[in-house]
Amino acid sequence: MGYAETPIELGSGRSSYDLAAEALEQILERTGIGKPAIDGVCFAETMSETSNPFWAIYLCEHLGLSPAWTQLNGLGGASTVGGVARAASAIRDGLCETVLVLSADAQSSWPPTEQGGQRFEFQYPVGLNGPVGVFGLLTRRYQHQYELQDEALAKLAVTQRAHALLNPNACRKLNKPLTVQQYLDSPYVSEPLRMLDSVMVCDGANALLVTSTDKARELGLEKMVHPIGYGEVTNFNGAEQLPDITESGFTLAGPRAFARAGLTPADIRMIHPYDDFLIAILLTLEHLGFCERGGGSKFILDTDLSYRGSLPLNTSGGQISAGQPGLAGGGVNAIEAVRQMFGEAGERQVDNPVNALVTGIGMIPYGRNWGVSNVLILEQP
Amino acid sequence: MSERPPIPRPLPPPDRYTRTSPFWEAAKDHRLLIQYCTDTGRPQWFPRSVSLATGRRNLEWREASGRGRVYSWTVANRAWPGHESRVPYLVALVELDEGVRMLANLLNTDPGSVRIGMPVKVCWERLSEDIEYPAFEPA
Fold this sequence. Notes:
The complex is a heterodimer of chains A (about 375) and B (about 140). Chain A is about 35% helix and about 15% strand. With about 375 residues, chain A is an alpha/beta fold. In chain A, the strands form 3 sheets. In chain A, strands 1-7-4-2-3 form a 5-stranded mixed beta sheet, with helices on both faces. With about 140 residues, chain B is mainly beta. Chain B is about 5% helix and about 35% strand. The longest helix of chain B is centred in the first third of the chain and has 8 residues, at about 20-30.
């Protein structure tokens, strides 16, 4: 396995193709493999190029790849993690041997794609402000049902920002220290949701190389991690008309991943949860069983989540402090997990990185929790 | 830099993704329709092409009471494009007595007065000659 990540930039003016090319070059340089060894590709849909229904094939054309297996994942921020699982399945089925799981997006430079559907009639005329509006509704409902301590969200913000300051790929605009008070003073964008609860959309690309253990050894790759557990659900509670919107698909995807891995939350060395909004991290911790339902604030306040801590969390700064490269954002925390497990995280290196849990979240539906939840557990060989 | 002309508030295009014109026709008379599965009697919102309960297309429109409660709400401190002149405005998930949730604006109230569980009733905004759009106000 290998990984690649471009710097995350705001308004780079570059295209998803150009960013993807940089990620491919990094993969080749880091692993030393030749481009012909890549016989499978697993790309993520983008906000910048997906109006082109042939995006995956155009990208193959741009990169000069002729894969035997091509997969395009439209799982939003869950596409990278889901891509690793799909690549592993394809390899096990003998459809290909070595898969480039690549996500690139230039959402801050090119207009976003239209999601359409019911939105034209039942969302846009109301003026719900997209993901920010939905997470405002979600946060308010959580506050109603459970205790939400602003100090816990502030701690997540400050911890991730401190991590981002140690990450050379983090967006430069976010490269300044953050205090608890600055978080609390941050203006509301969709009250009770604050600006500093939210990601900033940027540009960037990242990639993982997935192959079998035998093939990795044949290619001379010394460093690798093993995916040992995966769980996924799309449109959680989709037929219910009155779901609890504070409950996510992680309540299903988490147990699936843990069961396959033969692990429990107590066994997890570090966690890299998808972070479009800080409260998503809190809900993820609860729904995966790191703490009880409603206990997220206390757990966060009681746990050292720094890279030196008992449960290091989003040690690259996460998307909220490193920047969200559009729909390549699902790769930011996954790449960091692999980088940590390879022992290549520099100043922010976690001691004894025996395993890692990574999550993805995709798409904002109508009046319910997020659309896709997936969980990937990685382990040292 | 030259200022771009303001984008108007988006108008709903009926029948764009599924058949919704019965809803918009009734809305002209300030009647709120929701879909029901005729096999199970279950209501659903937003409108679909199939019953969420059965996956079959046995659906009909029935008039709802227009009464419900606030399930959650938020203040749009920043506008969705086309709503700039309305900031700050209230967006809620309203749970209708019939058992569905509707995304809608809360009108004739203010952030200091709204509570989860607060009873509300439907009211209508005239967005164009053809479109009366449902919102909710304190009941």
